[in-house]
Specification:
Layout: E1 9-11, E2 16-20, E3 26-29, H1 44-67, E4 75-85, E5 88-98, H2 106-118, H3 120-125, E6 131-135
Parallel strand pairs: 5-6
Antiparallel strand pairs: 1-2, 2-3, 4-5
Length: about 140
């Protein structure tokens, strides 16, 4: 792959800070209450959810433009769960895609499936993280 852009961020664990190399991201990190923490900061699952939702929405826009369809009113919510699995801890994702009424039905579902094929996050997680697509 020929890199077009590289993001870099540094963190020192689930309790502390996450800071991007350009300073645009500078966040307090804390364990969520469900994992025994204070919840007084963001956590890796929230950061992954935000990144995946943004990337998937962008991929949906791309496939929509290629099909001559306006997806501008669509929104994506990524629900990232962490839990115990055979290897220790694992992740699962539910992508909830809210489409405008003009894309209801099979045509919208097809666009969502196409976005899942081209989205870099979807491609990176394929075979590693279960991802459920829910079209709303």
């Amino acid at each position: 792959m020929d890199a077009i852009y590289t993001a870099a961020a540094t963190a020192n664990g689930r309790e502390g800070r996450a800071v991007s190399s350009d300073g645009q991201l500078d966040l307090a990190l804390a364990m969520p209450p469900a994992l025994g923490g204070s919840g007084q900061g963001t956590n890796p699952e929230q950061l992954f959810a935000a990144g995946y939702a943004a990337c998937f929405a962008s991929a949906l826009g791309l496939v929509g433009r290629q099909a001559g369809v306006d997806t501008g009113e669509a929104s994506v919510t990524a629900e990232v769960s962490i839990g115990k699995d055979d290897a220790g801890f694992g992740l699962s994702v539910v992508l909830r895609v809210e489409l405008p009424e003009s894309l209801a039905g099979e045509s919208g579902e097809l666009l969502v499936k196409q976005a899942h094929e081209v989205c870099p996050y979807s491609r990176a997680t394929r075979g590693n993280v279960p991802v459920e697509l829910v079209v709303e």
